[in-house]
Specification:
Elements: H1 2-30, H2 33-44, H3 49-58, H4 98-104, H5 126-129, E1 136-137, H6 157-171, H7 180-189, H8 207-221, H9 228-243, H10 247-263, H11 276-290, E2 305-307, E3 315-316, H12 319-341, H13 351-366, H14 380-405, E4 413-414, E5 417-418, H15 419-441, H16 450-466, H17 478-496, H18 500-512, H19 515-521, H20 555-574
Helix pairs in contact: 1-2, 1-3, 8-9, 9-10, 9-11, 12-13, 12-14, 13-14, 14-15, 16-17, 16-18, 17-18, 18-20
InterPro entries: Notoamide_regulator (IPR053187)
Protein name: Transcription factor domain-containing protein
Organism: Didymella pomorum
Length: about 575
């Protein structure tokens, strides 16, 4: 009887498999070519038959063509909807990008638009015509990743895969702590068995905190063991703690990651005995921790592909080019830091040093691939490269501008221009990049790096509103500067829904406004601002804050200042009004 039951059991399995293959064959045979090719592509990428069929049954591959999510052509700039006149200079290449031109073209009928069928993939206009957060990551290997094999926080495979997809499209594009392909391959091939029981950890009822505490606990279980994956986890933990306002706690993880890297000799040439996969993991981790030729081996970086709504093509994010450009920028930033702070005391850079650094920065930007050219950029991670470049350049010339204001002799020239002229040109392009990015993508999607860009631009704007002699105040009108301040405040409020640091920084900018400006701009500021009611311990320095001592520019000091202002304001509001 036992043998007979086993035979029936095996028969049922074979019957089910046969039915699945028959259904798959019928799908390929009867579906339109583009849908059949999508099924074949998923199979070639390693998707098992059940996951492919499940996608078809659930409509993930085909019904999405008839459902249109957020695809608006543009967002409206706050306070003043038009692009400020002082940015519309003839040689501003960011105004010639298809992304900017598309936002101000009159609406056209769908028949006038170029479709993917009419245009080769290289000329696909989706990244220029639709916001990035409307796109979905296309990664078939995720079909073989299951929540219960990696976490006790959630059991829903769909949610688990969705969270990984969001991470790849938003976080991984800016902070590349590990190779995406190796990461997903390992998740699909080697389930983790040592997951602790969260019920015993006293977890708070918050999904983000649950994942954070679980990751922290798993990492601590292997503390003292030097592994690549432990280094990756430490970098991720530090990044999450940073934007949660706990960078002081997060510093420990990066310090441990550096120790592990030295133990593994990651900063030395990889041993010849390593196969190509292990070599790539070692090299990628070394570069990610320190923070290579893209055109020769783009797969080395682990590309991320996305599909936009109603599109039958997939689009590359070109992360290899983004990563290479970002690392080259960080190398120059490191050299600037060594010149100014290596001796333990801050030194002002000489004119010759500034000129040499400017030449290196300009050379780097001129050598960018076409995808990252000013007139071609489309995605937020592309804009981040240019924004970071302009912030470095603007800061580089700040010392020269201040020094020459107090000197009677003629200003030093850099390539035929004064430091002030260069800084003004840099500012114009910096603000243009921020506004053009907002027009298409807004700041509504998670982007930790945007905190620095928004606070830098916001501080410049608010300083200009209270100082008529500032360089920005001389470039444009007070109304335009107010619109810039609102753009930055609302951007930080949007990010506060993902990161507690956004709450602090948005409150900081609002509190810096003069009462007259606060009253005028109040109805234009997003009402979604959150309360400062969270533990906070961060020595992060904030950019472009004018202080006498370095510690006054840290987030801890800003938080203390904002809380004191808030308490004083509440006390003033609660004072009884004397009767007449």
């Amino acid at each position: 009887m036992l043998v007979q039951e086993k035979i029936h059991y095996l028969y049922d399995i074979l019957k089910t498999q046969n039915e699945a293959y028959a259904e798959l064959f019928a799908l390929i045979q009867t579906r339109p070519d583009n849908e059949s090719l999508e099924v074949l592509r998923r199979i070639k990428m390693g998707g098992d038959i059940e996951s492919v069929l499940r996608h078809v049954r659930d409509g993930d591959l085909f019904v999405q063509l008839s459902v249109e999510p957020e695809t608006r052509l543009r967002y409206n700039l706050p306070y003043m909807d038009s692009m400020p006149a002082f940015l519309l200079v003839p040689d501003n290449q960011y105004l010639t990008t298809p992304l900017f031109e598309a936002t101000f073209e009159p609406p056209r009928s769908s028949s006038d638009l170029v479709t993917p069928e009419q245009s080769p993939p290289s000329k696909c206009m989706d990244p220029y015509m639709k916001p990035s957060h409307a796109a979905e990551v296309v990664e078939p290997i995720l079909d073989r990743v299951y929540a219960r094999q990696w976490t006790n926080v959630i059991a829903n495979d769909g949610l688990f895969r969705r969270l990984i997809s969001i991470y790849l499209s938003h976080q991984h594009a800016t902070f590349f702590w590990f190779n995406k392909d190796l990461f997903l391959e390992d998740m699909a091939a080697r389930p983790y068995k040592g997951i602790p029981d969260l019920a015993k950890l006293g977890m708070p009822d918050n999904l983000q905190n649950r994942f954070l505490l679980e990751a922290k606990r798993l990492w601590e279980l292997e503390l003292g063991i030097s592994r690549l994956t432990s280094i990756h986890a430490a970098l991720v933990l530090h990044g999450v703690l940073n934007v949660s306002g706990l960078s002081t706690v997060g510093d420990f993880y990066t310090s441990e990651a550096i120790t592990m890297a030295h133990n593994l000799r990651l900063f030395e040439p990889a041993p010849a005995r390593l196969n190509l996969r292990l070599r790539r993991g070692h090299e990628f981790t070394a570069w990610a921790l320190w923070l290579w030729q893209v055109d020769v081996d783009p797969d080395w970086y682990g590309e991320v592909y996305v599909r936009y709504p109603l599109s039958r093509t997939i689009t590359r994010m070109h992360l290899g080019h983004v990563m290479k450009a970002t690392i080259n920028l960080r190398i120059i930033m490191n050299d600037i830091s060594l010149l100014q702070f290596a001796s333990g005391e801050q030194k002002e850079l000489t004119s010759a040093q500034v000129l040499a650094l400017e030449t290196r920065l300009d050379s780097l930007m001129q050598k960018l691939p076409p995808t990252l050219a000013p007139n071609r950029i489309s995605l937020p991670c592309h804009f981040n490269v240019h924004t970071e470049y302009y912030i470095i350049l603007h800061s580089l010339f700040q010392g020269q501008v201040v020094a020459h204001r107090s000197k009677p002799e003629p200003s030093q020239l850099f390539h035929g221009k004064t430091a002030l002229e260069i800084q003004n040109e840099v500012y114009i392009r910096f603000e243009t990049v921020m506004r053009v990015r907002y027009l298409r993508h807004s700041f509504d999607a998670y982007d930790a790096w945007s905190l620095f860009f928004l606070i830098y631009l916001g501080n410049l704007a608010i300083d200009s509103l209270s100082n008529d002699d500032s360089t920005v105040a001389k470039l444009t009108t007070a109304e335009v500067i107010r619109s810039t301040a609102v753009l930055c405040i609302n951007g930080l409020i949007s990010q506060s829904h993902f990161m507690y640091a956004g709450t602090l920084l948005s409150c900081s900018l609002i509190e810096q406004l003069k009462p007259v400006d606060k009253a005028r701009l109040g109805r234009h500021i997003s009402p979604g601002i959150r309360q400062i009611d969270h533990p906070f311990d961060s020595e992060w320095p904030m950019p472009n804050i004018k202080v006498e001592r370095d510690e006054e520019a840290t987030m801890n000091y800003i938080l203390k200042d904002v809380r004191e202002l808030s308490i004083a304001q509440n006390a003033l509001e609660q004072e009884p009004v004397p009767s007449s």
